[in-house]
Write a structure and sequence with these properties.
The protein is mostly helical. It has 13 helices and eight strands. 43% of the residues lie in helices and 8% in strands. The strands form three sheets. A three-stranded antiparallel beta sheet has the order 1-2-3, covered by helices on one side. A three-stranded antiparallel beta sheet has the order 4-5-6, with no helix packed on it.
Length: 353
């Protein structure tokens, strides 16, 4: 039996359906979501008109924000932070859910900013919303060719970067205050700069203690990377060898599945006399120690698995050795090209009448 074309009804649905091939060659067969035949015919006519204008005049059909979100989430499904991406998309629905992409202009972006500021949200929170909007619109323009342009979206200023990192003495106190399984995690994080999830999911099959190397297949940006293991990291893993057939880091014989900042972590922080410390601050500490020890920005970028150099530039302030020679050029007692001015300027004599 030939399938019906145009607008038709199915025995298993109360809605009208459409089945047609558009001018751009795209085949559509879907429910219209309406029980009114005239509305269904109007939808089909609009789809045909949009396709005709796209083919013959180069006019792109107007795509909705909701349609873009669905495709965006499909494209980002492999991200470890996909739950946060979905949460932000749901939050933005009240601002953008009824708009098409071409309707999103500067006024709409400002409405998002003003609305969130009215709720009392900080610049860092609002910037995450703006960054997602910008990334989605850029993807719609550059990859999907759904739009030709989108408004310039600047992130808010005044966002304060977190600067918390541990001194060697503080790190020693923290390790001493931790129970054995947590101390191993802390020592490995300080030796490698790996994130919490990268450490807890590390498997023995991806570790070569002889060569001093590990391979991470679960990273924040979804890109596997290798991690060179220094002697401190190797010592941690050697002490754990044989405790579990698959995972390197365990607790009471089981892989660590939950977050690390639990009661044990908070107890250790208090016992060590530290404040305002998150497990991720160990990664900041590792990077800060590297820069203070002379590791270059490019070396640190590769070691930490950052995709862009800008992510590492925040640690540049910790490296000042290369400026020591320049700083010494004006030391007291040194010559050079410094012009010597008299301490007291001579007074000018004026002629009297």
């Amino acid at each position: 039996m030939a399938r019906e074309t145009g607008v038709y009804q199915r025995p298993d649905s109360r809605y009208w359906w459409i089945n047609s091939t558009l001018a751009n060659g795209k085949r559509i067969r879907q429910s219209t979501g309406t029980e009114d035949r005239q509305e269904a015919e109007a939808l089909l006519a609009k789809l045909k008109l949009d396709a005709f204008r796209e083919v013959h005049f180069g006019i792109k059909p107007h795509r909705s924000w909701q349609e873009a979100v669905v495709r965006y989430l499909e494209a980002k499904a492999a991200l470890r932070s996909i739950r946060d991406v979905k949460r932000i998309c749901r939050h933005l629905h009240s601002y953008l859910g009824n708009l098409t992409l071409n309707q999103i202009n500067g006024d709409v972006i400002w409405a998002v900013v003003a609305g969130e500021q009215k709720k009392g949200n900080k610049s860092a929170t609002i910037n995450r919303y703006l960054a997602l909007i910008r990334n989605l619109l850029r993807t719609a323009r550059d990859e999907w060719q759904w739009i030709d342009r989108f408004p310039k979206i600047r992130l808010l200023g005044g966002e304060v970067e977190r600067e918390r990192w541990l001194t060697k003495e503080e790190a020693g106190r923290l390790i001493a205050a931790c129970p054995p399984h947590l101390a191993a995690l802390v020592r490995f994080a300080l030796a490698t700069g790996c994130r919490a999830s990268e450490i807890t999911q590390l498997e023995w099959s991806r570790v070569d203690l002889t060569r001093g190397h590990a391979w991470l297949n679960q990273t924040k940006n979804g890109t596997p990377r290798g991690v060179p293991l220094n002697s401190d990291a190797v010592a941690v893993l050697e002490a754990l060898s044989g405790q579990h057939p698959r995972y390197c880091f365990t607790y009471r014989g089981e892989p660590i599945r939950h977050g690390l900042t639990n009661h044990g972590w908070k107890t250790a922080i208090d016992k060590a006399g530290l404040e305002d410390i998150r497990f991720h601050d160990l990664r900041h500490t590792w990077a800060s120690w590297h820069r203070q020890s002379g590791t270059s920005t490019d070396e640190l970028k590769d070691l930490g698995g950052w995709k862009t150099r800008s992510m590492v530039d925040r640690y540049a302030k910790f490296a000042t050795d290369h400026l020591a020679v320049a700083a010494a050029r004006i030391e007291t007692g040194r010559g050079g090209n410094v012009v010597r001015f008299p301490h007291v300027l001579p007074t000018l004599k004026t002629k009297t009448a």
